[in-house]
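User: Sequence for Nitrate reductase molybdenum cofactor assembly chaperone below. Tokens please.
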Amino acid sequence: MTERANALRIVSVVLQYPDDELLAHRPVIDDAVRSLSDGPVRDHLVEFLHWFGSVPAIDVRRHYVETFDLRRRSSLYLTYYLHGDTRRRGMALLLLKQRYRAAGLTPPETELPDFLPMVCEFAAVEGARGEAPLRQHCQGVELIRTALHDSGSRYAHVLEALITLFPPLSDEDRAAVTELMAEGPPAEDVGLAPFAPPQYMTGMEIRA
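Assistant: Structure tokens for Nitrate reductase molybdenum cofactor assembly chaperone:
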């Protein structure tokens, strides 16, 4: 596996919910990060691991839930940013699932195929071809990065590492990100708050 693929896989792993198994592998993750070549990707991941490897498990889990499950602007489900709560999102999810299966991968039924860790794993396995979904959803990735910085989350370092692997956004993409930040994703149904993916509309308190 190439170093680029290793970096993508590390990002995929650390953006998943920090359950017992993941937290038990913190020393392994640390070794994998430190084996990367010197550069901004390694630097951002090392900075993240300074926190991730030293904070008690309960605090890591609380921060993860507050960051990704309870904040509208840092959801890890990429198609929401591009399509919002529209029928186009359902088609995008279906096409992404078909892309995985065509590559011989079977996404778990318990998770949507646009979950950022899953998209990063696909890119790590499939190389340049597998990176297409990440490039397609670069605006969403940038929105997540910005939201994590705004909230002061340590996970901002992980998104910085991910973005560093790809070319800078075009002027057109930056304009679209600015518009999304101001107006939220497109919607067909009334009454849904911007940046609140349907799977989170469960009565839990959601913060902007």
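Confidence is low (pLDDT under 50) at residues 189-208.
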